[in-house]
Specification:
This protein is of the alpha/beta class. The protein is built from ten helices and 23 strands. Strands 16-23-22-18-19-20-21-17 form an eight-stranded mixed β-sheet.
């Protein structure tokens, strides 16, 4: 027996914003006499919105009202109502994530766009979603090849190293097509602060095609260095984002591209086609060491991140879960791995534990008592790797009473620094979205 979830992905990027609507089919993969094992068996894209320019009030602020209008219009075109949405993600990416009001806009959209559409940000998560949405992870899994995926957008390039079909490391560089905005007459209307010390011109100055191409070639050298194709130089350190991880790509890895700039790699565009340096950045990539070995364009390019958000952000917990007095959805719960860290939180948090394989009753009772002491007056939210959530949750509820808030899920691997969203039940399982802000493992 299967169940269908409706998932929405919204990507608010440096240059463009877009939405996809997906259908996720959930099936029980266990036998009729076994404990249910719920999995997302199929992902189907139902609707892709047009590409919208990200609306800005000024250089420092996102136009939240205009974004809401875009979301309203796209929901209507897709033929869905907000209450019908089961899961999904809003991700604000690149330079847009640095805008003064970015977090406020995300929080407003999170509640406005649907009951369990979650607000997420962070270059590491963007790297993961883009690699999945572009098909790079599936390509690595099918071929067994090591893949270095580069999602090159308007403000940043998000990198993911894929080995045996698994993302093992991510990184992010301030390299993108929208670091310069250029009017039709060649006058610069915007120069990103990240280019200070690299590019000598400022807004109001005039620029020609060769100057833009020279800058693009310089930026591409940083991508080559990240791919292990040239030595790193000191000036390149200024292009790494503060949250960037470390990559050590193996020799001979296939390089995969997505993002808006990817469309300019194999298809030449007029240099002022989009009013930015994207076409020349694409040309510089095509002429660089990145394309001298085996390379590929993603199955999706400019839509890779939003498809990743809509199709690949949700997963399911184990089926032997326990919850009592929980009002779903739960959003943006910080994850900790110790009672000490739990006590340092200002509000509710999720305690991530390994759990025990096939525990005896006394082990469950002892662990429940320790957890009750650790949480004190807080709601008890637990995530376990081992399959023991129901027994442990029942024991905790027995100790705290029927009025206590208790959530215990299993077969979910979390780490300190993650954030967790939990949706309403799908059969015996719960849909979860794990937002990993630092994923360099």
């Amino acid at each position: 027996m299967s169940e269908v979830l409706l998932s929405v992905g919204l990507d608010v990027g440096t240059t463009s914003s877009q939405m996809v609507l997906s259908e996720l089919t959930v099936e029980n993969r266990a036998g009729s006499l076994a404990v249910p094992e719920m999995e997302i068996a199929q992902r189907k894209i139902l609707y892709k919105s047009p590409i919208h320019f990200t609306p800005l009030l000024d250089c420092d602020r996102v136009d939240g009202e205009k974004l809401r209008e875009i979301v309203d219009a796209e929901y209507e075109k897709a033929g869905i109502r907000k209450p019908e949405v089961d899961t999904g993600a809003i991700i604000i990416t690149g330079e847009t994530s640095r805008k003064e009001n970015a977090r406020t806009v995300l929080e407003q959209l999170s509640g406005y766009a649907g009951d369990f559409v979650v607000a997420t940000a962070g270059p590491d998560l963007e790297s993961v979603l883009a690699a999945k949405g572009a098909g790079a992870v599936e390509y690595g899994e099918k071929t067994g090849k090591k893949v270095l995926h580069m999602d090159i957008g308007g403000g940043t390039s998000n990198l993911a190293l894929i080995e045996d079909g698994v993302i093992t490391a991510t990184a992010c560089l301030n390299v993108g097509g929208r670091l310069l905005k250029i009017r039709p007459d060649g006058c610069l209307s915007y120069v990103s602060p990240v280019l200070e010390g690299i590019f000598g011109k400022k807004a109001g100055d005039y620029v020609n095609r060769e100057e833009v191409l020279e800058l693009a070639r310089e930026l591409v050298q940083a991508l080559e260095a990240a791919a292990g194709l040239r030595e790193k130089e000191s000036w390149m350190a200024g292009l790494k984002t503060a949250e960037s991880g470390v990559l050590e790509p193996p020799e001979g890895a296939v390089i995969s591209f997505s993002g808006g700039v990817a469309d300019c790699i194999d298809a030449a565009q007029p240099w002022l086609a989009f009013g930015d340096m994207g076409p020349e950045l694409g040309r510089a990539i095509r002429e660089s060491r990145l394309c001298r070995g085996e390379y590929r364009l993603g199955e999706e390019t400019i839509r890779a991140t939003v498809i990743g958000a809509g199709c690949h952000s949700a997963r399911l917990s184990g089926s032997t879960v326990f919850y009592q007095n929980i009002r779903f959805p739960l959003k943006n719960l910080p994850v900790v791995e110790s009672a000490e860290r739990l006590r340092s939180l200002d509000g509710p948090g999720v305690l991530a534990l390994p759990g025990e394989k096939s525990p005896e009753y006394r082990q469950v009772a002892r662990l429940a008592a320790e957890i009750i002491r650790s949480f004190g007056e807080r709601p008890v939210y637990l995530a376990l790797r081992e399959d023991m959530a129901k027994a442990l949750g029942q024991q905790i509820a027995l100790g705290l009473g029927q009025s206590a808030q208790v959530l215990c899920i299993d077969r979910v691997s979390l780490r300190e620094g993650d954030y967790l969203d939990v949706g309403a039940p799908v059969g015996p399982a719960l849909p979860v979205v794990i937002k990993t802000l630092i994923l360099n493992r």
